[in-house]
Amino acid sequence: DIIRKCVMLTREACVTLNEYVEEDPATTGCCAESHVNCRQMLTHLNSAIIVLTTHADPPLVWFSPTALKMDGALRFPMLQIREHIDTLLDRKDQTSECLFSVRATLKVCKLGERMPEGSSTSSGGGGRAGGGGGSGAGGSCYSNEESILDLGKALYKLHLQLLLLLEAAAKMYIALSVSATDNKLQNLSAEVSTVRRALLRAKEESGTHPLAPTPEESLVQILQESDWPNALTYAKQNKSRWLDELISTGTDDNDDDITSILSVYCHLLIEKHSDGFIVTEEDLVSVTNGLMTELYPMLEALNCIESRVKELPKTSN
Description:
It contains twelve helices and three strands; from the N terminus they run H-H-H-E-H-H-H-E-H-H-H-H-H-E-H. The protein is mainly alpha-helical. The longest helix is centred in the middle third of the chain and has 48 residues, at about 135-180. The protein is elongated and about 70 Å long. The two termini are about 50 Å apart. This is Protein furry. InterPro entries: Fry_C.
């Protein structure tokens, strides 16, 4: 869920930043180079969104609490993840505040552009509307570029923290698998992965199945019959009747029904095999590598904007 929220916030920020770069620099009060650097940031932010929405689904992890002891090898990674989540939520709030500031700045810039020349409202905001280049215009330029810089920094820190969270999660999944193996638990992951691949192949198909009093048991019957199209249709019809903890996947894409089916399937497998564990394989390494690939050039673009912002007060005096 937190990944989805970060992606949604990043998309909102990209819309605002795109609005900024499409404006004439004379309207935004920023130099053309700032618009170029902002376009570079947008490119890498959009690429990061693709990485997160395509590959960042967390693995399904299921095991019986009585079968797996929470020793130090598991507690510490869990504490790390909790700390990363708390920090990520703070980063998300900071990004939202910066985004609000940039939106307000853009609104003021557009209003200033439409103000009649010499009007009392625009005269106090700087000499741009009247053609002057005095200290008011310089101060406006500094303020506008600084708000863009603050938003860029907030987005960079948000995705860096998300990267740290995903790295910690990957270590946690490895620790869980090792601990489960050491405790001689039965690995049921391959069975779940097989069902998942079959559902993915059938997700474009349609089918119907009569409703039954117990949605979970009926779903398992359909899956045991390998009736994948009907399983997907049945999931759509019964999802609202399943327990929240069984289908709380945090995803909002076309594969959500598949993940919901697998969540119910895992729940029933662990009920049947109390000595079993499930950790489905997800390529989190490609996600973290993809994020790192986008973060480095994003930081370079931010450094260029920051260098100009530091020079602006000197040139405006």
